[in-house]
Design a protein that fits this description.
heterodimer; A: Rossmann fold; 2 domains; two-stranded parallel ribbon; 16 helices; 43% helix; 14% strand; globular; B: two-stranded antiparallel sheet; Leu-bd (chain A); ABC transporter substrate-binding protein (chain A); Peripla_BP_I (chain A); signal (chain A)
């Protein structure tokens, strides 16, 4: 008898832990944090999550919340897996007095899975620098916000920059450009843009996939050596990047003609490759590895009180800054929405309005202490991305140096592509796009 | 005493051959089905925790039921017919993509037909990749089925037609309409999946105690002897592959349509195949109940472990929790396999034996 009773008690306990625990405090805005501090991509996931949480802490500790509304947050480990990401989403979406304000999936795979769920649950999905590129079209994707940049914008930026490097985009004609990409949604997204731009500018384009996680690339680099391309654009994540740099060195491909995208250009991508990574270039998702006024505030208010998650030296690293900027646009969207709906905890639907009407001008960025990190940003119903700027940086063996000025990406090729893809999505799902002019 | 069948006389052959010959089992199963079909949805309707939240349905019950179905399918092949397969992820993928293509290209067909087409396509593929089983056995067969896994990973990544030329290779399932009702809420999808799973569980239970199931088990126990007494190995092995892949294909289609809604080939990677195999082994080879118990173990224990520290009031950092979770989960698997190498289903049948004698063990 005792044994079954114990079993029953254990079962009851297990059930109790499965039930989401209710949060009692009323004046709180809940922001869920999906992070990956374990698994294959942990080296990239940890700094992102640290930056994100540190900024939320800063808003709480320095300002006492957003206009007096404290931020509550909870991390959930996804290990960069779609299944766990969906479980985390379901676990966190109802927390807090008004439910989750928005989700940052931090994985293109999880973004695709959650894009279906977000409209049903009325929770916005913010994907800073990744995710579905066609979600820029807010008339179809009401709930997705690829703020600050998307894969397609990054692909456009890569060609803009390479055009400058050869002395004008007309000189790209006849050049050979190879895209070495992770064989996952994140890696396949930019192909469409590179192909479209190849038709326009006349370069030959080859996409070479690398099976995830991308640690084994010998045959791909053999192929690259035979093709002798002028440039190799690297669209990898995690361990694939240092592996690519090492293989490039092994076949003697000059690293300054290897151009990574923004998620291939952080400290964990180059440090493992050692000296061989010297002069490797990458695109920037606007920001780089800089420290601005906001970092001083974080060091005083968060690390000064012992609440920081990283070490003070790590504050200001690339992925840390990306997490920070992601948190910053989230907080500003909530602030924007509060101006309309009042200074109280807001629902996902209200935060969506805030995201769509987000307007961070130069003065506001100055006040937030991130003026050197990002360009002014203005979202709207037609444009959920906000801005199409970027820069290029180079690794000198010890630190990243910015080697280009701000480049604005040309929308003439990208915009029709976004429209076309969004329209195809709308018709396949039976969605009627809203009329942005009538809002 | 509770589980004593004394006094239950069987007076006809039909009674003797009943699916569940013991009254207590009939009643408890009926009770379980009533709870699952009526109790759980009405608790959701009335808002009784924990069933008032979407989380329990869409993050726990749906994946549990769908993966149980896949494990059930794999159990037919591995547990009943003794053919080790590492291709179950691929068969799930075939089911998902076949259902997707049917639904997208023939939108006038009901969605249930699309799901069935997923099963049929997976069955055909299963038979094709089961052909090597006629010549090779054991681990070598496992390697041959591994080929299916890698082939279909490659196929769905490379051949754009299967993903309807989606730029990123990620596809989106159409909404599920059944008999004019659109199943949006997770409770509705739960009921659909539950119905399918229950139908298949009874179907498999009946198959394995019939002629064909006995052929499978004969092949499993000793194929040479089975052949000598007149069982055709070609027929037995290929039917096992067909039935198993059919069920796994349906599970794959449900995983894509009812659970994820949007997916990429990576969803059905080699990890999924291993997971399913672990579920079947830990649950108990050759047991219907084992498929459910194994799935519950593999799917739910990590989730419970990851939430335990917070529930006990000792908040740890997420990374510590997930490292702990992996470590504890690994230890639990080892402990279970040492304590009961025949799986959780065996533990259950031991418990039944004990209950029969209780409270007078001697």
């Amino acid at each position: 008898m005792r044994y079954p009773a114990r079993l029953a008690a254990m079962g009851a306990m297990a059930l109790a832990t499965l039930a989401p625990s209710a949060m009692a405090v009323a004046n709180e805005q809940f922001i869920p944090v999906l992070s990956y501090r374990t698994g294959l991509y942990a080296a990239n996931g940890i700094p992102w999550a640290n930056g994100f949480v540190d900024y939320l802490q800063l808003v709480n500790l320095r300002d006492g919340g957003i206009n007096g509304v404290k931020i509550a947050f909870e991390e959930c480990e996804t290990a960069y897996g779609t299944d766990r990401g969906v479980e985390c989403y379901e676990r966190l979406k109802g927390k807090g007095p008004t439910g989750a304000a928005m989700f940052h999936p931090v994985s293109t795979g999880i973004t695709f899975a959650l894009t279906e769920k977000a409209p049903v649950d009325k929770i916005p999905m913010v994907t800073v620098g990744y995710g579905r590129s066609d979600t820029r079209d807010g008339s179809v994707f009401r709930w997705n916000f690829p703020l600050i940049g998307s894969h397609w914008t990054a692909a456009g930026l890569a060609i803009e920059y390479l055009g400058r490097e050869v002395g004008g985009k007309d000189k790209l004609k006849g050049k050979k450009i190879v895209l070495l990409h992770l064989d996952a949604p994140a890696g396949r997204e930019p192909i469409a843009v590179f192909e479209k731009l190849a038709a326009k500018h006349g370069y030959t384009f080859t996409a070479i996939p690398v099976t995830a996680p991308g640690l084994e690339q010998r045959s791909q680099w053999l192929q690259i050596r035979q093709m002798r391309p002028d440039y190799v654009v690297l669209w990898g994540y995690g361990g694939m990047n240092p592996a690519a740099i090492q293989e490039a060195a092994a076949v003697n491909f000059p690293r300054d003609r290897l151009l990574g995208y923004a998620w291939s250009g952080a400290e964990p991508d180059v440090i493992p490759a050692g000296d061989r990574a010297k002069s490797y270039k990458t695109l920037m998702l606007q920001h780089g590895a800089e420290r601005d006024k906001v970092h001083q505030d974080i060091l005083t208010h968060v690390y000064g009180k012992g609440a920081g998650l990283a070490t003070p030296q790590e504050v200001g690293q690339i992925l840390y800054n990306r997490g920070l900027i992601s948190a910053l646009v989230s907080v500003e969207a909530i602030r924007t929405a509060q101006a309309k709906f009042g200074n109280k905890p807001l629902t996902g639907e209200q935060v969506r309005w805030g995201l769509e009407n987000l307007d961070l001008d130069a003065g506001r960025l100055q006040a937030l202490g991130v003026a050197t990190m990002i360009k002014p940003l203005k979202a709207s119903c037609e444009n959920h991305e906000g801005a199409r700027f970027g820069r290029v940086q180079q690794w000198d063996g010890a630190r990243w140096t910015v080697i280009s000025d701000w480049i604005e990406v040309d929308g003439t090729v990208l915009d029709p592509l976004v429209k076309e893809s969004a329209a195809a999505y709308a018709s396949s799902k039976g969605i009627t796009p809203v009329d942005c002019g009538k809002l | 005493m509770l589980y004593h069948e004394a006094g239950q006389y069987k007076t006809t052959y039909a009674q003797d051959m009943a699916l569940l010959p013991i009254a207590q089992e009939r009643w408890s199963l009926a009770g379980l089905l009533v709870v699952a079909f009526v109790g759980v949805p009405s608790m959701a309707f009335l808002g009784i925790p924990p069933f008032d939240s979407d989380y329990v349905f869409s993050a726990i019950l749906l994946p549990f039921l769908i993966l149980s179905l896949a494990a059930l399918g794999l159990n037919v092949l591995v547990g009943y017919c003794g053919q080790i397969s590492l291709g179950s992820g691929a068969f799930m993928a075939v089911g998902a993509y076949a259902a997707y293509n049917t639904a997208v290209r023939l939108p006038e067909l009901p969605i249930l037909v699309a799901l069935l087409s997923g099963g049929v396509a997976a069955a055909a593929v299963g038979v094709a990749f089961g052909l090597p089983s006629l010549r090779i056995k054991g681990l070598y067969l496992a390697v041959a089925t591994l080929a299916a896994q890698f082939f279909f990973d490659w196929l769905f990544l490379r051949v754009k037609w299967f993903t309807n030329y989606a730029p990123s290779g990620s596809v989106t399932a159409p909404p599920i309409d059944v008999l004019g009702f659109r199943l949006d809420a997770s409770v509705e999808r739960y009921l659909l999946v539950l119905t399918i799973v229950v139908l298949f569980a009874f179907g498999v239970k009946n198959l394995v105690r019939g002629a064909i199931g006995r052929q499978w088990m004969a092949i499993r126990d000793m194929d040479l002897a089975a052949e000598i007494i007149g069982i055709r190995p070609v027929y037995a092995k290929l039917t096992a592959f067909a039935v198993s892949s059919f069920i796994i294909g349906i599970a794959g289609a449900l995983w894509a349509f009812a659970h994820l809604g949007s997916w990429e080939p990576l969803t059905f990677s080699i990890d999924r195949s291993f997971h399913l195999l672990f579920m079947v082994i830990i649950g108990g080879l050759g047991s219907i109940l084992g498929a459910f118990l194994g799935t519950a173990f593999i799917l739910l224990v990590p989730i419970v472990l990851s939430r335990l520290p917070a529930a006990l009031g000792t908040p740890l950092s997420t990374s510590t929790i997930s490292h702990l979770e992996t470590a504890v989960f690994g230890v639990l698997i080892i402990v279970f396999l040492i304590a009961e190498p025949l799986g959780l289903a065996r533990l259950w049948s031991l418990a039944k034996e004990k209950l029969r004698l209780w409270p007078f063990p001697h």
